[in-house]
Amino acid sequence: MASLARALAAVSLAASIGSADAYTASNCKNLPGDAGWPSASAWSKLNATLKGQLIATVPQAHVCHTLPSNSFNANACDELQSTWTQAETYVPKPAEILNAYFQNQSCDPFTPISRSCELGNYASYSINVTTAQHVAAGFDFARQNNVRLVVKTTGHDFMGKSTGKGALSLWMANLKEKTIIRSYSNPNSTYKGPAIKLGSGVIAGEADEFVGANGYRVVTGECASTGPVGGYTQGGGHSLLGGAYGMAADNVLEWEVVTPQGDHVIATPSSNSDLYWAISGGGGGTYGVVLSMTTKIYPDGKVATGSLSFTLAGSGSAGNDETAFWQGVNLWFQSVPGFLGLKQGTVGSENATMLSQITNSSFDLLGITFPDQTVTQLQNTLAPYLDGLKALDINYTFSTTQQPSYVQSFNQTRGLGPLPWGVIPTTEVWASRLVPVSFVENTTAVASLVDVYRSAVQDNAFSVGCNVLGGFNAPAHPDNSVFPGWRDLAVICNVLHQWDFTAPLDTNLSFKRRLVSDVQPAVEAVTPGTGVYLNEMDPWYEGDWKTEMYGVNYDKLLSIKHKYDPDSLLWGLFAVGGDESTLDANGRLCRV
Hints:
alpha+beta, Uridine Diphospho-n-acetylenolpyruvylglucosamine Reductase, domain 3, 3 domains, seven-stranded antiparallel beta sheet, oxidoreductase
């Protein structure tokens, strides 16, 4: 308890600096400094109930500042600066915020040493969750003390659900179960194949390596630091394996959940089926806290992979004319139905996935992935596109490899591997758009979209990442709340901006304003009615989020939300029911 007491003192000092005024309105959550904020003895009592699992937040970048605790350490600060963009710096630690916007420079290693390290948007306390009882205790404390509650699995979170000023955080990182089930058995399920039970704290890279060592594959994210059991799968979950096996949510057999009322339940398509339906695609941290997930796995095997790139003249020895360059980009979008075998006369594969990066001077296919197929099949699929590039007189580089397993193919994909952590994206400013097959079959529509993206990247402020992720409607799966726009998807595209941690905050925020006010509306204007991905969107998004993220599922999801969380203990920006509360100017969560 002594170490907790020392940490409490540090938190109290930082909180006193960060919260200048008290506010006790009954419709708002308490913040440190408010009259209703729990006393030190109340926090100590909670810690006793948890048998010592309560952690007071001291931001790790306190070593880069002299205030408020005179803890500056030059060597430690230098080390932290060198790893600040790496997932390992945040994911395994309580309360740490991965997203730069929500860090808000309240305590980071790049601001002046003399600037005070404040909690800002950091949760005030975390519960190191290892049992269902810990989650129930967190819910009870938050309800009884009118304190905001958040859930952090990995914190790979662009919408700020996993953190919050003055919050009590349920930190799930140490739920590390990984159990292979060779033959899944449930009397109400027709599925009898292999499965895996994963604890909430397992990251995608750990899951991939574990199942790979046992001769299997599992649907996880392209970013290895995502949490398969957390917001990734609960929000839908696209994958390099998605063409073959569907969305991550399509593969879930069971969810182990603690509801906000404290009930510890198993949700399946036949038991607590409404909760299963909602959690399988309707967004993380909204309906309950998931302790574990049981999901399908698949026999591992060969994977054909490849990469392709071409550039503008002046960007390399084989650069191309600007008009031809953008014609090549346009042709790539038009070729997607052929890649997926949906165009008459083409040799394609619904299993195919491709990750592309478009800048003002380069086009790269970084992750061409054909599971259970040969290099010859991959080459035959891309042959019509390569012929088209030749007809445009575009110089390009193209290579292929045959890998014996999915993990080996992932590790060899530039920009993704190596596992278990992979490469964290530093693109902290981004906005997504789902592009259906019917759209890329329309040459006029494609030309309009490419023109918008060309305009967005022209000054090198943004890049565009597009993933070919077809086939999501093919695998049979239980009914779930995955956004319907995924079912006829051809491509998901994100407009991206690299966050500069050494620049003034206003400089980075100016790119956010440009993205949400100019670029994203232009993208949506030429792609009406298609939708966005709820896990990949800027928190300043100005669109009709209920329609664009949830569509026809929203009303049913809201009903389930109200059933299981009548006190609205779980809240997130753009989460179902998210408009029933709001953050005030001081970061205080209030009902509206």
